Amino acid sequence: MGTVVATAPEQTRARKFTNIWRDGDQIAHLVTFLFAASVFLVTVFLVYELWIHSGPSRAKFGFGFITGRIWDPVAEQFGALPFIYGTVLTSLIALVISVPLGVGAAIFLSELAPPQLSNACTFLVELLAAVPSVIFGLLAIFTLVPIMRQYVEPFLKHTLGFLPLFQGPAYGVGYLTAGLILAVMTFPFIISISREALLAVPREQREAALALGATKWESTWQVVVPFARLGIIGSVFLALARALGETMAVTMVIGNDTSIHTSLLSPGYTIAAFIANNFTEATGDIYLSALVELGLVLFALTMVLNGAAQLLIMATTGKGSKQP
Amino acid sequence: MAGSAATINAAGATFPAPIYQKWFEEYHKAHPDIQINYQAIGSGGGIRQLTEGTVDFGASDMPMTDDQLSKITKFKVLHFPTVLGGIVPTYNVSGAPDLKFSGATLAGIYLGNIKKWNDPALKKDNPGVNLPNEDITVVHRSDGSGTSFVFSDYLAKVSPEWKTKVGVNASVNWPVGLGGKGNEGVAGLVKQTPNSIGYVELIYAVQNKMSYGSIKNAAGNFVKADFNTVSEAAAGAAKEMPEDFRVSINNAPGKNAYPISTFTWLLIPNTIGDATKKKSITDFLQWMMTTGQADAQGLSYAPLPKQVVAKEQKQIALIK
User: Fold this and answer.
1) Taking an 8 Å Cβ-Cβ cutoff, which residues of chain B contact chain A?
2) Which domains are delineated in chain A?
3) CA distances from A98 to A123, A180, A243 (A)
4) Nearest residue on chain A to B51, judged by CA atoms?
5) What is the complex's ipTM, to 2 decimals?
6) Which of A23, A116, A178, B53 has the smallest C-beta neighbourhood within 10 Å, fewest atoms?
7) Which pLDDT belongs to residue B243?
């Protein structure tokens, strides 16, 4: 009798245990949960590391780090504003060019182009998205920079030179050239994802619009594109993320100057390019710590812009037709 | 012999990396038991890793500062010069293939005080040369580098204004100009941009067959950089060589001394606990200063002058 009483709970515990493991759903749940958690852990770890290692710099400069305009390793005075400015400005130039181009191309490929042409173009676009950035940088140095210096920048100065945006010497390298190469690098992303989003719009939507007497373009522009706008906005923010963090191609064409200029033709610097250029030779604790803080600033910048994107999406989905 | 095998890890400067790789490989061939791994991660990185004790020795294009040395408490760092390099001005001015620069003029250009190629200061350095009435585009390194350290150190020596306004470091707050990444970045920008001036390592200029200018040295002569003039700068400075070899040989005395020259150093701890490693490192140093020096010119570095080698050999005895 005594033995039965003693073994019964153990048996049930063992059964429960095997039950759990027999149940594939539970395993899948656990494993995928761990995978998902790792994303969270990596993010937390990243912020923690950046925060800890930027400690000396944060303590010394405080908020002045973000508003400071001078980066002087000799005097150990560090201000990040020129790099923040360069990063935001080049990314903005890139998006101003690549969004209309990319979305326009995606509309053509998904709605208007014959299927064969669409498939061929899509293949090329995806190929373009996979080209390493250093290749774009080389391309820019050998072709884009001379063209900018000899033709585009003199032309801009001649026609729009009354604006402070287009003044100063035409070096060929600078914010505008960096923005252009970023536009070239980001627009495959916009085309690729926007096209997917447009293709995912149900056929009935188009048919309904056409049945109501809309032309092909009216149905595309007024029904299909608004329906797919979440995907399109998503593609824009993916492009923005790439533009903000791009390092190699940018440093090859931006001119790498640590001051703030109004003119788009002037040389500048971005956060990612500056960190990559200076980390290996950084000596001194404050200098190193300031470079890590630059990384933290870039991270925060990306977070803020992504947050803004989320808000924008929430605001726009509130109105108009909801996606299923 | 089996007991004496050693793997030694080192890290640091990129500028001497080609000759270091060659040395370590040759040394390994001659002494199969000894394997020296070298990571060219930059002088700053080499100093950091040595400080943290993750490598057996470091390498740097700039001598360690007192502040950096004071952070290492476990051992003292000995500086061993290995080879020499020069830094040369390269430019893109049509019709002016061979230009001369005095130190003050070069500093004026990099400070942004001299803005045009036909500035009186440049005309004075280059009598008879037809210099264009064009703006100078200044090009400097965008990445932190030993090259910029030596160049800014030279400018500080010849220009009080540079010394107070900008100072000396692997990367400084450049008053004017565009930044190019690495020697190739600077060379590329200069090649592409009309009326520009930049600076690159002598070995880079030689290997890429670039033309470059002469610099006025402390004795008042315009000297073009080559192995001999760079070595002469070291010989000129050797007489006043401090005991720890932490010396800048910029603007050195000597009739033909090239004024923008530098040693590059191995940073060796003065106590090496592992007896095998200690023997391997000291043997290597001895080999590097004698047999190894023959490799220097083939790779476009200037070899150490004899006076410096003699002095360094005494320092080997300090490794305990």
Assistant:
1) 41-45, 47-48, 65, 67-68, 135, 137, 142-146, 166-174, 177-181, 185, 188-189, 192-193
2) 2-53 (no CATH), 68-322 (1.10.3720.10)
3) 19, 9, 11
4) A283
5) 0.83
6) A116
7) 85
